[in-house]
Automatic annotation (TrEMBL):
Coiled-coil stretches noted in the UniProt entry, renumbered to this chain: none
Keyword RNA-binding: no
Protein name: SsuA/THI5-like domain-containing protein
Organism: Aeoliella straminimaris
Top-level taxon of origin: Bacteria
Keyword Signal annotated: yes
InterPro entries referenced in this protein's UniProt entry, alphabetically: OmpA-like_sf
Amino acid sequence: MHIQRLSYVMALLLLVATPVGAQQLFSSLTGPLSVEPVEDGAVTNVPYITWGGDVATFLANGGLETKPDSIYGKSGLKLKLTPGDDFVQQVKDYMGGKSPYLRGTFRMLGQASEVIGSDPRTKPVIILQLSWSGGDHVVARKDLRTLNDLKRDGKKVRIACQQGGPHVGLLFDALAAAQLTNEDVEIVFVDDLTGPNGAAEKFRNDKTIDACCVITPDMIGLTGGLDSTGTGAEGTVEGAHVLVSTQNMSRSIADVYAVRSDWYKTHREEVEKFVAGYLQATGEVTKMRDDFEKTQRMSNDYRQLLTMSQQIFGEDVLPTLEVDAHGLLLDCRFVGLPGQIAFFQQSGNLSGFEPKLTAALDLATTWGYAKSRKGFEPANFDYRQLANMAGVKYSEPKRVVKAEGLTEFPDDDLDAGTIVSFTISFEPNQTDFSVDRYGAEFDRALQSASTFGGAAVVIRGHSDPTKTLVQLIKSGMQKGLIRRSGQKGNYRYFLNAQGGNKELDLSQTETIVQLIESGAFEGAADSPLQTMQAALNLSQARAEQVKQAIIDYAEQRGVNVNLSQLQPLGAGISDPMISKPSNMAEAKQNMRVEFRIVKVNPEDLSEEDFDF
């Protein structure tokens, strides 16, 4: 069982005086604050939260207080790591000078942006991205199959989510992927991330709650596992399943450290040592974690690290080392040095600093946490220098990743794995997909590929079945296999092979395809089998043309893209919008390319896929 952010239970206690479902300005949570200079002292207070990314901080520091022989101790730093899961208190300490550091997700800082960004002295400088989350999920009841289903006519979908915690950003991204906002659903805010006042228990006990945002242990409790569906047995909820997960939406929740602007100006060297030490520790942690995962033999150093984490986080949070403490690290995707470069410096990274800042401020202002947009600044480090300080190899991330690994997707497996989808239409025999007409869709496809770094973007071409149907009827009547009755515009067709009593429904595409594939209608003047195959070939070619158009568009804009995520697939006539078109307008609805964001096994991806 993987454990994710359990001490966010106390984070952002935003509902102490807030009714369920209401949003509240972050400034009203902290109350009036005065900006005080950072306290002078031999030791600097640095907050941590309960997350796998912070285990590297423990290793670098040697524990809660800097040990002389630790990474930070050897660099001359003296730090005291303090609990930071109460983010409101973190902000109070930050503004009051008790600590120059803030530790949270990018969206959490965004929600507090109006408070921490209004004074130039406390305007945050983002110095470090620790990781991307792989352990947060939206669990839904059985009638919600994809993110598109979150918008429905009539009564709104009700989603339980902890107010102000990391899942607010997760929900924002999930809705955005389907081009929805918080106005399209009803968000039922709960006090805590987990436990009796968490979203999972709200979902379990209130059948009017359609979905909930949860951490891995709660997800397993509700569904039985990432790819399972709850049966109602052993505490699971019947029909509950994972609608979307950061296993696939892998670049949604970014964990970061920030420092006050005034302190950064006077303590830059100290901050650089902090970041370099963290990067060094990241390499050591990931090696120990990965070695244990491969060999199932735990080294003494890894056992000591997990034991220290268990002591700091508490045995109620991490009951076991092999499952819970190790699982916490498995849910954590450390970005390392290439990830810092990609996040802070690559202009084409759609999950980089500037896009994430825009999204964080969009969330803060549109969801009611702030009235105005107060941004942050990146640290603008020299990463070659930091690599030298950390003793790690300097390596720049690729802008275009050509890594192999994602498998082809059988057409009949797509529905079960689809997270969200959208389509573009085209004219008969169209081969050009211009930016002027399709630029918005290309942008959406590229953003989806970036946010859903652990998923495939299946580009599925479709063809209209009209010509195939016409040739099936002609061939069948010529060979005496089909009998027609009625008048033009109201014909009925019967299969003579079934004694003339079996009516042939041309709108049943699956049956039609099976009849054609049987070969019984071949040998007449027109071959429905050849026409159906030509339609399949055309749809595949069209999907590949759209993929190439997206690649060209990304290259022109300098946008990062993982080519192995873009999977062209031809559906032919197998899945029409209108099975039996009656005019050209209806036929054109079938001439389309569909974009599907599809789950893949995370093991099909390499670490390189997460560098940008």
